[in-house]
C-alpha cells in the first residue's frame, strides 16, 4: 500500500515544471498535489503534465505553507546542498530518499514532502517547519537538479515504501507536544537566545524518529509530570 | 567510485529532452552521452541542459546502436511496460533500477544504459541487443514517464552503485562467447525456428549473471571441448 503522501510545491515559478511534477506524480501513483502561491498553470503546464492534467486540475492551492501541512504527521523538506554552510543546524542531518523510505517503512500516516522554489529553495522559516530534511545525493560539480527530476527521483523511491500498521502520531498531537516542550523551556528559564535552536533540534530528533501515536502520549504524560513538580 | 557508465539515447525526438537528460547526467556525476541518430540539439536543448551544455557538446553522435555499444560489457535496455504482452520473451525478466544496482555491485567494467524513442521505445532488434532489461516500477494508471525523468531516476540509483575489483568480461570476449554458442547450435542441428529465441534466452541469462572475464574464458573452453567431441 502506498503511504498517504502529498507533494507540496512552495511558490513554484515555472508552470512547465508544475506540469512535469504532476506527470511524475501520476507515474508513481501519487495524486495529492498542493501548490503554495504558485504561478498560474496554463498552456505550458498542461502540455508538460501530458496525461496528468486531471491531477493538476485537482491540485489544492493555498496561500501559506502552514496551511498546506497542518494535517501532516511528518513534514519532509527536500533541499539541494546549496547554502548548506549558512544554516547547517537547519539542514542537518539530511537523509537520502532511500533513508527516508527505510525510516518510514512499516508506519502509516500522513506525510508531506516539500519542494522549494526553483531559484531560492526554502526560507529559514519554512525549513524550521520540517521534521526531516531530505537531500538527493548528487555530484558536487553540478548539484542543482531540475525541480521535476527531483520529484521523480523522490517518488520513485517512496513509491517502494512498504507501509505497515504502526500509526504515526497525529499532526495535531505532535504540535501539542512541541508547544508543551516550549512551555517547559519557559518554565525552566531556558536562555531566551537558545530557545529557537533547541526547539528546532528537538523537532528534528522527533522528526527523524517518526513518532508513533502512543509515544507522543507517553512523552506528553512525562512533560505534564515534570511541570507539576516544577510548579509545585 | 562510479561505474564506467554511458547513457545511450536511441533516436530521441525532442531536443528539450536531450538537454534535460544532459543536466540529469551531470547532476549525478555521469558524463558519457551517446546519441544514436538524434534530433539536432539546438536552442531548446541548450536551455534545458542548463549548466550541462558542455556535456551535450561532448556527446558522441553515431548512426547505429551497434556502434554505440560495441565496447560495452553489459548493455541494459530501459523500457516502459508498454507492449509487454507482445514480446514478453524479449523483456522478461525486467529488473528495477535497484535490482540492477545490486547485481552490478562489486563489479567493474563498461556499462551502457539505453533509453528508447519517446514515442516508440525500442524495436525488437534493438531489444535483442540488450543483456538486461530495466523497468522503473510505475503506476499502472499512467506508466509512461518523461524520458529525462526516467534517466534521472535510473542515474540516481546507479550513482549509488559501489564498484569493486571483479572485472566484467570484455565486450569483445562476450561477443565471441555468443558467436561460439551460435556455432554450437548449428553443430547440434538445433531447430532453425528456435535458434533466435534460444540465443536471446542465453543472452539474457548471461546478461543478468553479469559474466566476469575468467568465467567467459572457462565457458568458451567448455564450448571448445564440446565441439571437439562433436566434430570427431
UniProtKB/TrEMBL annotation, chains A, B:
The keyword Secreted does not apply. InterPro entries: Alpha/beta_knot_MTases (IPR029028), RNA_MeTrfase_TrmJ/LasT (IPR004384), SpoU_MeTrfase (IPR001537), tRNA_m1G_MTases_N (IPR029026). SUPFAM superfamilies: alpha/beta knot. Keywords: Methyltransferase, S-adenosyl-L-methionine, Transferase. Residues 5-156 form the tRNA/rRNA methyltransferase SpoU type domain. Pfam families: SpoU_methylase (PF00588). Coiled coil: none annotated. It comes from the Archaea. The keyword DNA repair does not apply. GO terms for cellular component: cytosol. GO terms for biological process: tRNA nucleoside ribose methylation. NCBIfam families: rRNA_methyl_1. This is RNA methyltransferase. It comes from Methanolobus zinderi.
Amino acid at each position: 500500500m502506498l503511504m498517504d503522501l502529498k507533494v507540496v510545491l512552495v511558490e513554484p515559478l515555472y508552470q512547465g515544471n508544475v506540469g512535469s511534477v504532476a506527470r511524475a506524480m501520476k507515474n508513481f501513483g501519487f495524486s495529492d498535489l498542493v501548490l503554495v502561491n504558485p504561478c498560474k498553470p496554463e498552456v505550458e503546464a498542461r502540455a508538460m503534465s501530458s496525461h496528468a492534467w486531471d491531477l493538476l486540475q485537482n491540485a489544492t492551492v493555498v496561500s501559506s505553507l502552514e496551511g498546506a501541512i497542518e494535517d501532516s504527521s511528518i513534514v519532509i523538506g527536500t533541499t539541494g546542498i546549496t547554502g548548506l554552510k549558512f544554516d547547517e543546524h537547519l539542514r542537518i542531518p539530511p537523509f537520502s530518499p532511500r533513508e527516508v523510505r527505510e525510516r518510514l517503512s512499516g508506519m502509516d500516516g500522513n506525510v508531506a514532502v516539500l519542494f522549494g522554489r526553483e531559484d531560492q529553495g526554502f526560507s529559514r522559516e519554512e525549513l524550521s517547519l520540517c521534521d526531516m530534511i531530505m537531500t538527493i545525493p548528487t555530484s558536487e560539480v553540478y548539484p542543482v537538479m531540475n525541480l521535476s527530476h527531483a520529484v521523480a527521483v523522490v517518488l520513485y523511491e517512496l513509491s517502494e515504501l512498504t507501509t505497515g500498521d504502526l500509526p504515526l502520531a497525529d499532526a495535531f498531537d505532535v504540535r501539542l507536544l512541541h508547544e508543551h516542550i516550549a512551555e517547559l523551556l519557559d518554565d525552566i528559564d531556558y536562555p531566551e537566545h537558545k530557545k529557537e535552536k533547541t526547539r528546532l533540534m528537538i523537532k528534528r530528533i522527533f522528526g527523524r524518529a517518526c513518532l508513533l501515536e502512543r509515544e507522543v502520549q507517553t512523552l506528553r504524560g512525562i512533560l505534564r509530570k515534570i511541570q507539576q513538580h516544577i510548579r509545585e
